[in-house]
Design brief:
Layout lengths: L14 H20 L30 H12 L11 E2 L8 H13 L10 H18 L6 E5 L2 H14 L6 H4 L8 E6 L5 H8 L7 E4 L9 H13 L3 E8 L11 H11 L2 E6 L23 E4 L1 H4 L7 E5 L2 H8 L28 H36 L3 E3 L7 E6 L9 H18 L3 E7 L2 E7 L7 H22 L1
Parallel strand pairs: 1-11, 3-4, 3-5, 5-6, 6-7
Antiparallel strand pairs: 2-8, 7-8, 9-10, 10-12, 11-12
The structure holds pyridoxal-5'-phosphate.
Length: 489
């Protein structure tokens, strides 16, 4: 029997309380964004520090909003690594923006599930319209149809799934891979993001089903090696089905020669997917349009507005020139989801059913900054990265390890004291250097390994970053390098 508890109030927070807490929270957000530089970029928490402050059991009774908000300062903020900080230079320095945050707020308030057109026509139609805007901004031809997924990893998963669906002679949708007498093979460069292999894992293709292609001295996929690999695989009984070219690789932002890779895909009938998760947005800048050269021949392209288009995570745009194949791969409509309108139902084009209204924040970002405003910000990031590359080149104690086509700089320290030392010693020095830089909290950089060498990576992409922050970053790096050398004696 259900017990009645007449004293417990039901329903949501009152409109008055929502207004009061909402205003309080907007003030809190405005102050947080404005005073960002008070915080160390990288959280100083140790594992367990946050968890220890959270009660082990949920509150039996309601708590006041004031108390909850106070805990954001006390418990949550110390455990935040500030991706909004203008000196966040790690990984790809992604950033939200005022209009993007407000877009998220509206989207949370509307709480739309855009699975079908009828479950909110505005969610579907705004997504279609805004992705057509973005397509024009990137200079992609009209045949590219777009959909928003959460991340580039999921976009690439859908690319490989569509590529598998496009195979002639095997109905993978009906039969899966069981009983297939040839193993599928996908191709990507040694520098491609791990999401290609994750997609292969998820699709039952297996890690051996991804063949890594060697790169040239600027970390770009070598088309001759790709061609050779496909021929060898065909002879050995593999079934080549997909190539992922990357424009803006994760480690160095190198750009695979898509215009040379596309004819190879055409020759062997392979799906061409382009990973422009980071590099794609650069095409909004007229003089950087070359980044998507050759992409008009692609079957699919992923571009992440949450990486370099000032849109809060998550928002990944997947363009496909053969959306009917994607639909064949994923459309499955049970009785309870049947609808009669002749309109796009985005649930037909992917694995997820429920979907957030992400187009709203992208729409607000594009409208607020305008195409010229977005291009100006990306252009500035690229020019500061190029300036930093010049300072590194002019300093005999540092060495640049990759070209800088966009806004990420790869380098390492090679101070005089380490002349002639084995490479492990230079690596260890740079590992210690990065550790010292990040512990200190003024800036946050990350690393990669290039041709076996431990490499410091400094990425520029935050909307609040100015040239002065890059000057400061270079100063911090040099200061920590000198300090470390002194300590070594
Ligand atoms: C080139 C590239 N592709 C894909 C990804 C994966 O992105 P996401 O986190 O959106 O899955 C990344 C992440 O940095 C990336 O650099």
């Amino acid at each position: 029997m259900i017990r009645k508890d007449e004293s417990a109030p039901l329903g949501d927070m009152s409109a008055e309380e929502f207004r009061r807490s909402g205003h309080q929270l907007i003030d809190w957000i405005a102050d947080y964004l404005n005073e960002m530089e008070r915080y160390p970029v990288l959280s100083r928490c140790r594992p367990g520090d946050v968890r220890r402050q959270i009660p082990g059991a949920p509150p039996a009774q309601a708590e006041s909003m004031d108390r909850i908000l106070a805990d954001i300062d006390r418990v949550i903020l110390p455990g935040i690594t500030h991706w909004n900080h203008p000196s966040f230079h790690s990984y790809f320095s992604i950033t939200g923006s005022g209009p993007g945050i407000l877009g998220e707020l509206v989207s949370a308030a509307l709480n739309v599930n855009g699975m079908l057109w009828r479950t909110s026509p505005a969610a579907t139609e705004l997504e279609e319209a805004v992705l057509d805007w973005l397509r024009q901004m990137l200079g992609l031809p009209e045949q590219f149809w777009g959909i928003i997924y959460d991340t580039a990893s999921i976009s690439t998963f859908h690319a490989l799934a569509a590529a598998r669906q496009s195979l002639q002679g095997w109905d993978s949708r009906k039969l899966g891979l069981c009983g297939m007498n040839r193993r599928l093979r996908a191709y990507a460069s040694e520098q491609a993001h791990s999401s290609v292999e994750k997609a292969a894992l998820a699709l039952g293709i297996g890690l051996e089903g991804v063949r890594k292609i060697g790169v040239d001295n600027e970390f770009r996929m070598r088309p001759d090696l790709l061609h050779q690999a496909i021929e060898d695989d065909l002879r050995a009984g593999w079934w080549p089905f997909c190539v992922t070219a990357t424009v803006g690789t994760t480690s160095t932002t190198s750009v695979d020669p898509v215009a040379e890779i596309a004819p190879i895909c055409r020759k062997f009938g392979l799906w061409l997917h382009v990973d422009g998760a980071y590099g794609g947005p650069a095409a909004v800048v007229p003089e950087l349009k070359w980044v998507l050269d050759g992409c008009e021949a692609a079957d699919s392209i992923v571009v992440n507005p949450h990486k370099w288009l000032f849109t809060p995570i998550d928002c990944s745009v997947f363009y496909c020139s053969r959306p009917e194949v994607l639909r064949e791969a994923f459309s499955l409509v049970p009785e309870y989801l049947k609808s009669s309108e002749s309109a796009t139902n985005f649930m037909d084009y992917g694995i997820q059913l429920g979907r957030r209204f992400r187009a709203l924040k992208l729409w607000m970002v594009i409208r607020y900054f305008g195409v010229a405003g977005i291009a100006a910000r990306i252009r500035a990031h690229v020019s500061w990265a190029s300036e930093l590359a010049g300072w590194i080149d002019d300093d005999p104690e540092f060495e640049r390890l990759a070209p800088v086509p966009f806004s990420t700089v790869c380098f390492r320290a090679v101070p005089k004291g380490l002349d002639g030392q084995p490479s492990e010693v230079v690596d260890r020095f740079n590992e210690d250097l990065i550790e010292a830089i990040n512990r200190q909290g003024e800036i946050f950089v990350s690393h990669t390994r290039l041709r076996g060498r431990f490499t410091i990576r400094l990425a520029i992409g935050n909307i609040k970053t100015t040239r002065a922050h890059i000057v400061k970053a270079w100063e911090v790096i040099r200061r920590q390098c000198s300090r470390l050398l002194e300590e070594r004696g």
